[in-house]
Design a protein that fits this description.
single chain; about 210 residues; mainly alpha; Arc Repressor Mutant, subunit A; 2 domains; 10 helices; sigma factor
Length: about 210
Amino acid sequence: MSIKKIKVSPNIKNLDDIGLLERICSKDDDEAYNEFVDRYYDSVLEQCIIKCKSRNVDLHVGKQIAHEIFERIRKYKSFDKTKLNTQNRRKAILGWLYKFLVRLFYDYHNSQKKEEVQVNSYFDDLVAEAKNIDPEALASKRDLAKDILGKLNKKEKEVVITDLEYKRGQKYLPDDVNESLAERLGVKKDTIRKIRERAIKKIKLALDEINQ
């Protein structure tokens, strides 16, 4: 996507950042949109490039995501100034934009995971420890998984399922996946590790019970 440069009227130029966003979200306004992009694009692109370098992702992906962030703002018109929680408006808006960035990188990793080299997750290793379980003798592997996952609470189950999705492709979850997971669960990123540890203990206990 290329950002079309157009002449912006003084009325638009004089709007503050929140005024621009409210105008963009209330109607289709090319002037307001281009002025907002002009003010924030470089900062958004910088964060996308940093994310690409930290995750060893091609930089063109970051550029595409930077463009997509602004396109989503214009398409979904979801800005709500009452949810900004800081007096520094630029910092607050950048934080709001960063949430789009996290979701889009999450989507990117999700689309790429099937192409990555398969490695064992801790769940695979735990199942391997249950030496007396013969999968051929089980009516359904799904029943076994359902029984084990049924012993986890909602947050533990979400962490385990996310691990199963991503740790087949790499040993650790990408930072943006962790951030998105923490946001969905309403917890801090450090808390994810504690939830995972509790889930592992419950899974081990469930496997021990099956093995008895």
